[in-house]
What we know:
By secondary structure, chain A is an alpha+beta fold.
Amino acid sequence: MAEITFHGVTKVFAGNVTAVDNLDLHVADGEFMVLVGPSGCGKTTALRMLAGLEEISAGTLSIGGRVVNHVLPKDRDVAMVFQNYALYPHMTVAQNMGFALKIRGESKAEVERKVREAAAILRLGEYLDRRPRALSGGQRQRVAMGRAIVRSPQAFLMDEPLSNLDAQLRVEMRVEIARIQRLLGVATVYVTHDQIEAMTMGDRVAVMRGGQLQQVAPPQVLYDHPANEFVAGFMGSPPMNLVRARTSPSRGGVGLAVGDQRLDVPGAYGASHDLPREEGAEVVLGVRPEDIDVVGSDVSGPTLKTRVERREALGAEILVHLSVADAGAASSVAYDEDVAVSRPTMLVARMAPQARVEVGDVLMVRLNEERLHFFDGTRGVTLRRGGA
Amino acid sequence: MTGTTVGARAPRLTLRRRRQLAGALFALPAVALVAGLIAVPIGQAIYYSFTQWDGLTSTWIGPSTWTQAFHNPNLWTALENNAWLLLAVPFALGLPLLIAMLLHQRVIGWKIFRSIYFLPTAISWVVLGLVAERFFAFQGTLNSLLHFFGLTHVNTNMLGYESTALSALGITFVFTMIGTNTMLFLTGLATLDTSLEEAARIDGAGRWRIFRHITLPHLSRFIQLAFVMTVIALFSALFSLIFVMTGGGPGYATTTMEFLIYQTGFAQGDFGTAALYGLILFVLTAIVGIVQLRLIGSDE
């Protein structure tokens, strides 16, 4: 078991394409670190560099305090679970799991004992003599896990291991992988593009975009205090509402203009955030869907007049799509999706299924004044003092 | 209301039966084609092997062709030559496998090498035979090369001696098969999931183990196919090489079953015996094919 450190790690592919740009990341011993981000963000490249499958262009990468930049994959003592599992098709489950041990020169009895132990953890005991093609997707996934854990490696590397499973199995395996990782206490780097996996599995989550690390923090911290607009919009489903607004004069508090409406923000934000003092400066206001409530017209605080454009019933909750810009107009929203000349500001609100909301209703909504987020209008970084 | 509902009478054929009938009807043209092109000629060959046939008129003579043929030493020489040539098969598979592995590693200039190795496949075997004949001749390229490397006292004449002519033929055959088999193995390698190799590298496997435990098992089907194709080519496609290079000689040193059929039928005008030899060759090839199919089948 060991800790992993990326120090200024960069990967430049042929054609001068920078896949990973100056990555600094520390994974503590026993920690479950999730690398998350959209396709092409560099997360898989970072993992492959850690595995030794890609050369490192610059920086240093160390495992257990040893710099491994030029160490062959076989000498790094890491185990990897591939997206397509990469099970050896002509070998049985037991042979697949024992392959690395056999190469290491362990005795037949020892290999068999370790394989049986791992199979017991993964509930694979009855499938040991089967070939991969005779297994279901979930079973194959477990064999891939088994192949990794029999080796008792210094670190587990997992490259989107659940992406080939159906939704239900994915939920089950999510719990299973997290359970095994906690049980074994081995440092794990887990790559995914699924922010739900990131939120539910990781001790900490590193969000990447365009080869650059955006933020690394425990899941709840990422959710509550995103470092920038990208993280705010990436974590959470549906994502945080990000609304373009301009500062406007206010007595006591902070005034914002959202579309043609005025929004009063508590004065405390002026102290905790670096909100622009000048009038008319652009900021991005962030509010989570669950922080929007329907209220009466006489309520004070950060309220907006909106119109219900769409209603999605999800059973346990409903998602209500609200337009802000022309909330004053009685007629339906007059804008062309294709031309988008005056596209209204949209908000998504999460409401209880009992909420009596229909398309076309004009609603006064109140934003949870304790849970507002502000980002720089041009750079997108949080305006919270002290950053994330 | 009396009587039964119109259209409710029981169908004459069940759905299952109708499907079977349709299947049989669709298969009929293919069956007729196979029968016409394979079964009929085989039946004719069996019939002619019991006749004396000069190509125009045939006379029934019973099994005497069969008894005489097996006393003909030339038949046994040809069979022996075929057996010896089987020794070329491992080379006709091994060399292309090695080349394919190297090309698959994307060595510098691999695209040019790929074209060069495939070139013989696009050239007529008659031309290849002529080139080989010039290569092995007493004043040919082989001796020139040997002399160039200082071996001036060595003068080979592989096609001129009974002891070496068959080897020269075998070497030429290996050369002609390299292109096809290399392409076949390259195709096989292209279908190998690279993550398997990566997984093996992380599991601690070196080059040899990856080849032995990952690449080779993956290629087994391609190797089996190449084996069947190579053996069939060896038994039934060497005619042009032999005709151009040695004419079956010296003596009967390079006469294979295939060439013997030609000599017996067309040079000696004994089509009855030639038909019998054809049957023997067919059985030999079929045995190889069946054994191979069994091997492939057992893998499933």
